[in-house]
Amino acid sequence: MVKNIYKVVALIAIFTGALFFFGRQMETDIGEAGVKADMTEESFPYLEIEVQGQTINPLYGYSAPMEPDIVRESMTPLEEDKKISLIVAKSPARLTRLRYQIIDKESGEIYDTKEIKAISKNQKKIDITFDYGFKTSTEYILDLMVTTDTGRQVHYYTRLKYYMDESNFVKKLAFVKSFHKDTFTKSKAQELGRYLEPSAENRNATLATVDITSNSDLVTWGGMSPKVISDEMVTIKEYNMETACIQYNYFVRAQTSSGEETYHIKEFYRVRHASGQNYLLNFERTMDAEFDVSLASSQTSQLKLGITNDTGSKMLSNKGGNILYFVRDGVLYRYQMDRDEISKVYSVFSEKAAYQYRAYNEQGIRLLKIDEEGNLYFCIYGYFPRGNYEGDVALVLYEYTGDGELNELVYMPISTTYQQLKEDFEDYGYVSPRGIYYFTVANTVYAYNMSGKRLEKLAENIKSNSFMTMESANCYVWSSSLNSGYGESITIYNLETDERQMLYQPDKNTYIRLLGVNEDKVIYGYVKKKDIVRMKDGTRVIPSYELYIVDIEGKVWKKYKKSGRYIQNIVVNGNVINMTLCKKNGKNSYEKAGENSILNSLETKTEKFSYSSRVTNKSLTEWYIRFPASFEMKKIPVMGPGPKTVMTSERYVRLEQPGIVRYYVYAVGKITESFEGVSKAIREADKQMGVVISSNHQVVWERSGSFNQNNIGGITMTKAGEGVSNLAACAHMVLKQKHVNVEAKDLSKKKSPVYDMLAAYMQRPVNLKGCTLEQVLYFVSGNKPVIAMTGDSKAVVIAGYTEQMLYLYDPATGRRPTVSRSQYEEIFKNAGNRFISYMEK
């Protein structure tokens, strides 16, 4: 009887928690009626910068001030004269006055403000000479605040870097310009080949992405002979004394087997200039065809997409199967198959937009659902280059009705850039039969009620190990502990039916741990509380003694258990679940014990509409939309009219920035990936020759960003012994160097992992487990000592380095040895490459 009462109380508590989880309304600005607005053209002036005689860095305007260090689109190197010129392109609005600020990148402090009040009507060039005393090789933010003749205030951003000594900017840029020009000359293939690093893994089968591992034939455009039809816009992405990251952005036209086609090209170069020589460190060129309905193949009943990297974007068809919606290059198309007519439902740019504007395609389109009445729901996110929200970064939900009307349902601005938003805005979104749009931005889960016109925050600060999505089943799955991913229960929430299925811990001494999802299955494990171990470096081992695979109703499909082995982590790859196993090594330690896998049977779905490829001699791999076998394209489709106006919502809610820190990899001129852990981000950035930026907009790590040598001052030796543990001594040295007043013996008494010792007194310690010595020396280069584990309970403090040696503080001996870098690299590796350091903010 008592047990039953406890169960009822527990269920009430869980239900109450679920109500709290699903019901926190945010403030929303709601109007009574919308306004029908025209889809206007781009109006903000487009700027470029001229420096040292070179025209670089196209700048695009924001309608409101951004956080000064958030826009990382360009870097402007300054030489001794500190001069730049702004080149103003022709636009519907003209500049009447300009004010600029020089801002400290780290603190946000405004160092200098100047104003240019009178800009003449026909003035196309504005000269600026900075009189601020820049520190050499230090990043600053330049905020250009422009007033137009319509009274609008527009902000443009670039970063500044000043070099008193020659940084060879012109020579680096000249090398890239020469390489770029030579790619259009087939006879230069052999000459360019000496800069490339061809790989046998590169099949050289597509022109969609060509990089430094491609052969010289592909770098010189294979069998194609493209002609440049736009300005070639050059952006300096990153810059220092030796290296520069440079992007080319332009459009070409070329003859293919189908006819003449237009392509958007982006090229990324990473170059180094040293000892009078230029070196190509990285090269990547992407090529995406503009959709042209006249290139459709009526013989094969297919729409041609051409050369493209976008071969997986979502397509939606109506219930009758005679209307298809698809997205290409910033345009949402509607294909009415029974009438062979295609129209544009939504376009990022106006029909007459200049190539300079079209080059800045920083917006995405997501198709969500077609309801029973044939209404399409879709979402636009990113930078808006025209219309009511010109210059905003936002997420906007739209409805396109069966009658051909475009209705805005809600406008949600956010203070970030498109590059960060595309990483923070999770791929999965769902519109339920009850008219609720579920989506996730910046580790926060939202639900927008279309009929109630309100936005609710369902959960915030979620992590990938505690909150997951089953897209094929339209379910959210989360642990009762959103912080750790293991706890008393797991909830499976069906967004379509609004029903919840609960999975509980088997007993009070055992947790249930959410391990992953696979299509419409949930994977979880049981973990004995006593088996959970916190390692000395701060990492946690959560070993599951048994694994379960269940459906959304909680029905068990498979189990896995192996005597003496625990499941540490899993990776889902298609229908294969790969498990990392471990076993006990003493009372409070584990060691790796191999891997195993489970084959999980999945239902194979046959899509009515899909992407297919063909290979031609001239264009290599080209892509098409393939239709059902029963469909016959009677003629080449014609372009029909699309909506010219949109019914605005007059309601909005501002989305919030991430509550937990994420780490973004900047490489090849854009954000390529993001991670919750800094060590994973560093390892990936190293592979991509990139930079790691935190969601706090701090540069965390940079490939080749370390000095050749450095020695940190201000560290005082703390010797282990007499009540001071080895790890506490290391933590004490780091804290004392940061002027934190704490006794080493007090640190030892807590018997905490070394990471926790730092976290108790520092705002941003970082666990760098898995990084290499070479990677963590970036922190030492920035005068941040690194604690390096040499065993389970032993560590040293790395305080400096040269190309061959390391300067250590060893608490075990009380000495400061200078040791072989290669020798200790092996010692650290054998100890698991476990490193701890910190960031400034």
Q: Count of DSSP E strands?
A: 59
What share of residues are in beta strands? 35-45%
Q: Helix tally?
A: 12
Span between termini: 54 Å
> Based on CA inertia axes, which overall geometry fits?
globular
In terms of structural class, how would the helical and strand content be classed? mainly beta
What do the pLDDT scores average to? 92
Helix content: 10-25%
Give the C-alpha Rg: 29 Å
- Low-confidence spans: pLDDT under 50, at least 5 residues? 1-20
Main sheet attributes: strand count, strand direction, barrel closure: 7 strands, antiparallel
Task: Describe, in plain words, how this protein is organized in 3D.
There is one protein chain. The chain has 841 residues and is mainly beta. 13% of the residues lie in helices and 42% in strands. The strands form 14 sheets. Strands 53, 54, 55, 56, 57, 58 and 59 form a seven-stranded antiparallel sheet that branches. Strands 12, 13, 14, 15, 16 and 17 form a six-stranded antiparallel sheet that branches. Helix 8 (726-737) packs across helix 9. The longest helix has 20 residues, at 2-21. The chain starts with a helix and ends with a strand. Residues 1-20 have low confidence and may be disordered.
